[in-house]
Amino acid sequence: MALTCKLGETKDTIRPGAIHHLKATPETVHWGYFSPDIKPALTIRSGDLVFAEAITHHAGDAPDLMFDAGVERIFTEIDPTTRAPGVHIMTGPIFVEGAEPGDMLEVRYLSMVPRNNYGSNLAANWGHLYQEFGEKERVTIYELDPVTQTAHALYAYDFPGKYLVPGTITHCPVCDRSPALEGITIPARPHLGTAGVAPAVDEPVSTIPPGLHGGNIDNWRIGAGATMYYKCQVKGGLFSIGDPHVSQGDGEISGTAIESSLNCLFQIVLRKDFEFPSPLLETPKNWIVHGFGDDLDMAMKNAAKDMLHLLTEHQGLSADDAYSLMSVAADFGVTQVVDGTLGVHVRVDRSIFPHKGTVRDPQ
Predict the structure, then answer these.
(1) 300-313, pLDDT tens digit by residue?
(2) Burial (Cβ within 10 Å: 0-12, 13-18, ≥19) of residue 26
(3) By residue range, what is the domain housing residue 339?
(4) pLDDT for 54-68, tens place per residue?
(5) Beta strands 286-293 and 137-145: pairing type?
(6) 312 secondary structure, DSSP code
(7) Same domain (yes/no): 303, 172
(8) What CATH number does residue 60 fall under?
(9) Pick from 276, 299, 322: which residue ends a domain?
(10) Are residues 97 and 150 in the same domain?
(11) Is residue 48 a contact partner of residue 237, using CB atoms and an 8 Å limit?
């Protein structure tokens, strides 16, 4: 299906299709992994809208605030021994009719609304300063103000031992709580930490590291109003969402964001008219390319190489001109340092290009 609009141009020519509702239940989620062998939870056509529930695996940090009947079913009915090799609760997968390996899924995130107004941040054993804090793990519970779109800490408590089991229920009503961050408010940035297509492999792939399929990118800009492009690796794409956040800073240094369940509305459009090697983010102002690696040097190099691809193959610049432009006008940042595979993102302002930042088919 070749589309009439190029990447980044007006999208009015792509009319919304059917609207689907995808609830998160023990039957429609997969906990901790991506796999091409999971039976689709939903089948759609290009252009269809999906209203889907994304559930945080940290709801058990404050079950009195973050549980409801639907969340409790997931936590109690899914065998803890099957929550592997990763940790995130993924809703899906969604099978897109006509999608083949090499095609792109254009996922337009239209809205992200908290399921409840609470979230949890964990200073975890995988956090960047775990040793510096004496190997202590600490939970801070936040409350979201939906009117001001800000969050503030309600209380904090130390977690005994190591937080190792995905979906831990801490029974915080009997824990030793203390005040935290009194008088401080932070901006709410609802977004998905983890989303992507199924990798073309024969075994389950952990949701913890990011990769070319998407996964745990943890970029707070992947929220309402953003569009992500994922390259299909298997028939149907098999797209899933999870790891919802209320807010996060670049780096995610303690190990987590403010983890909180979200209700998400998005549109999926099948694209056969261009390709891009890694998960590509379009915001109203920027193109953002992601790079991953075992260390930040490799992550930054991979981000730079894929931005070079964007500027040469889709913007028509020479390699020399693109390299210069990246140095004087592109901003590199550390996306996260806590997911095993480290992430760097690089953004460039779309308005500096004569075609308003559209991405052209390679010639």
Answers:
(1) 999 999 999 999 99
(2) middle
(3) 285-352
(4) 999 999 999 999 999
(5) unpaired
(6) I
(7) no
(8) 2.60.120.580
(9) 276
(10) yes
(11) no
